[in-house]
Amino acid sequence: MKKVAIVLAAGIGKRMYSQTPKVLHRICGREMVFYAIDTVKNISDKVVVVISKNISEDIFKGLEVAVQESPLGTGDSIKAGLSKIYEFPYDTLVIVSTGDNPLIKEGEIKSLLEFHLRNKNGVTVLSANAFEPAGLGRVIRKGKRFIKVVEERDATPTEKLVREINTGIYIFNKEFLEEGLSKISNKNAQGEYYLTDVFEALKEKTKIGVMVLPRKLPIYGVNNRKELSIATSLIQNEIIENLMIKGITIINPQSVSIDYGVEIGIDTIIYPGTIIQGKTRIESGCEIGPFARIIDSTLGSGTKVQFSVIINSVTGVNCSVGPFAYIRSGNVLDKSVKIGTFVEVKNSKFNENAKVPHLSYIGDATLGKNVNIGAGTITCNFSGLEGNKKNPTHIEDDVFIGSNTTLVAPVTIKKRAYTAAGSVITENVPEDSLAIGRAKQVNKTEWVKRRKSSNDK
Ligand code: UD1
Ligand code: CA
Hints:
Elements (H helix, E strand, L loop, with lengths): L2 E7 L16 E2 L2 E2 L1 H9 L4 E7 L11 E5 L5 H9 L10 E6 L7 H13 L4 E7 L8 E5 L2 E6 L6 H4 L3 E10 H8 L16 H5 L5 E5 L12 H21 L3 E2 L6 E2 L4 E2 L4 E2 L4 E3 L3 E2 L4 E2 L3 E4 L2 E2 L4 E2 L2 E4 L2 E2 L4 E2 L3 E3 L4 E2 L4 E9 L2 E2 L4 E9 L1 E3 L4 E2 L4 E3 L12 E3 L4 E2 L4 E3 L2 E3 L4 E2 L4 E2 L8 E2 L11 H10 L1
Parallel strand pairs: 1-4, 1-6, 4-5, 7-11, 12-15, 13-16, 14-17, 15-18, 16-19, 17-20, 18-21, 19-22, 20-23, 21-24, 22-25, 23-26, 24-27, 25-27, 26-28, 27-29, 28-30, 30-33, 31-34, 32-35, 33-36, 34-37, 35-38, 37-39
Antiparallel strand pairs: 2-3, 6-10, 7-10, 8-9
Bound molecules: uridine-diphosphate-N-acetylglucosamine and calcium ion.
The site of calcium ion has 4 residues, from loops.
């Protein structure tokens, strides 16, 4: 029997008070709708995501997308989804889920499918016993028998007391879904087409079953920022626990944030206050933090980072970053590179064993092997004349840059050369030479005494 999934992810998400569509709000770095997609994609022959016009289709590569023209309710949204599965036979099982349900697991949908088939239902609703049912659709039963789902705003005071809620996840035999939808109206408190009204329409036609979710969740659906934060903390815990189980030490799990999909190798230690985001891979045996923020970067094994920010950069093995370094976009560090205290680097390549230990700005530069950059060195990369143009600085192998050197780019310092401390280097420096670019020092001997005697007169 074929199975297709329709994930409802259109609508406005009024309760978020946001410019961003609700299902695109991120949980651990990932748009929330993808958690719902994950739970159905391995068990379906096709996944259709129903989105609104203000969501870009591009982020749903490999999935079928249907657009709901206006947010007329879940019942209208599912119709848009059905239009993309017309080729599937009438007895296809349709898994319906919502894009704001990130806590439901694939295994739970599998059980729901089994329950549906075992009981020979035409429709099965996944319900749950909520600690706090407010805002959710209630499952109304007579004795044990399912009668209907009533939305909070249409519920009577007695119905509101019911704690069994509708999770918004269902299995339909396709023919009944189509038939039920043809019968619903928008005559309710919200003036919307409710998917939940199809049950009333179908109860004479087929067997409608309800499976109660065996676990209790703190929320069923993310509708506001408070629920977003609850979902985030649960998913964050899962990510962190999973890393710990796989051999990563996390000293104070409550104090770190690690995005979905971040990869970390064994024996890496994550110290408190660390945030690891985006497409980041940290190899084994690293020490990250305290207080590091790493975004879209790859760190070679044995690398140490403390009190620093690293964005869109790559380090080799055994590098050392910080404390208080800012590794901006586009840097490549070879092995054993040190970027030390109060150093900002950007779009630069650092070859093996290059060291920038303190108080420097290195931008649009290449540093050869074993280069040592003295404290206070600045690459003057910004031309200031040609728009936003940045000029390159090339520092070849084994060069020693004296403290407080100003390297006015474009400029090249050839192999093994030195620059004298305090130099302003405006011309290329040949191999094996010393460049001195500063006024020669003059000592005025006895100057203090002369001044004193002239003051005394
Ligand atoms: C819905 C259910 C409610 C259930 C709850 C569980 C209905 C009428 N109510 O209520 O019984 O307890 O989910 O979380 O179905 N959407 C669209 N198009 C629309 C409106 C919504 O695609 O026009 C999508 C949203 O993106 C969302 C999902 O459908 O992912 C559910 O919509 P939402 O407005 O959150 O429904 P609830 O009020 O939570
Ligand atoms: Ca919801």
